[in-house]
Write a structure and sequence with these properties.
alpha+beta; Ribosomal Protein L22, Chain A; 2 domains; four-stranded mixed β-sheet; three-stranded antiparallel β-sheet; 11 strands; globular; binds coenzyme A
Length: 247
Amino acid sequence: MTGLPDLPDGEVHLWLAPLAVEPDELARFEELLSHDEGARAGRLLDRENRNRLIAGRGLLRTILGRYLEKPPAEIRFAYGEQGKPSLAGEGHHGLAFNLSHGGELLLLAVARHREVGVDLEQMRDDLPFREMAARYFASPERAELFALPPQTQLRAFYRCWTRKEAYLKGCGSGFSRPSDSFAVSLLPGHPPALIEHRDSPEEPDRWSIADVPVPPGCCAALAVTGGQPSLRNLSWTNPAKHPLIFG
Ligand SMILES: CC(C)(COP(=O)(O)OP(=O)(O)OC[C@H]1O[C@@H](n2cnc3c(N)ncnc32)[C@H](O)[C@@H]1OP(=O)(O)O)[C@@H](O)C(=O)NCCC(=O)NCCS
């Protein structure tokens, strides 16, 4: 095992990890799960979905365990009203996290003393994105999106969608907050930002948005309270040989 990564308040660590893992590793991850997590996995009839849930929770516990210097199976989670997980109890020095699954990848953001939300999407060329934008986007977002050249609209849609979803996940509000009540930037070359919020005008000053570098074919964003953080990209590779590789 390599050392524990330092995580100062001004940094956000972004972990990318494959969710398709070897059977022996999956079995190890399954042993780390709580009774509730195991039961949730057991209710999933589709084997791929079940394995992804087990791998995701196992990875989450393993990675957080390194920051907390705690055995992964002993980590306890609490859940917000809309299901946002956080660390339960005390003694975790303000450690906050959020995760997203996109296809075969897990994206996990870890920060200290900040709220954090992430979204990772695997981009689909056949997505009915115009209908989705009409339904979920705020009017300034729709206006900007539909004024772009058609060949750049799908990419801009995903940029907007992941930034919005990362913000919603940062707030923990899920579907309870209407997605057209706030607007993010989406134009190519414009810095990622929460631009306006109909019900809480102070929100744009509270949050920073950043794009997350991910493999081609994916799109991801981070929302975090406070000023723009430095991002540190970390990947989980070859777990059987190197339990954790930082950097
Ligand atoms: C869970 C939710 C927040 C995200 O779902 P999703 O996009 O399918 O899933 P993701 O892979 O990005 O994230 C799932 C993870 O987020 C975390 N999560 C669950 N509820 C959450 C919440 N309310 N807030 C933040 N994170 C949450 C969990 O860790 C979950 O993974 P796990 O159950 O394996 O631990 C979804 O219920 C939701 O409400 N999304 C908002 C939808 C919306 O309005 N979209 C419009 C954007 S324009």
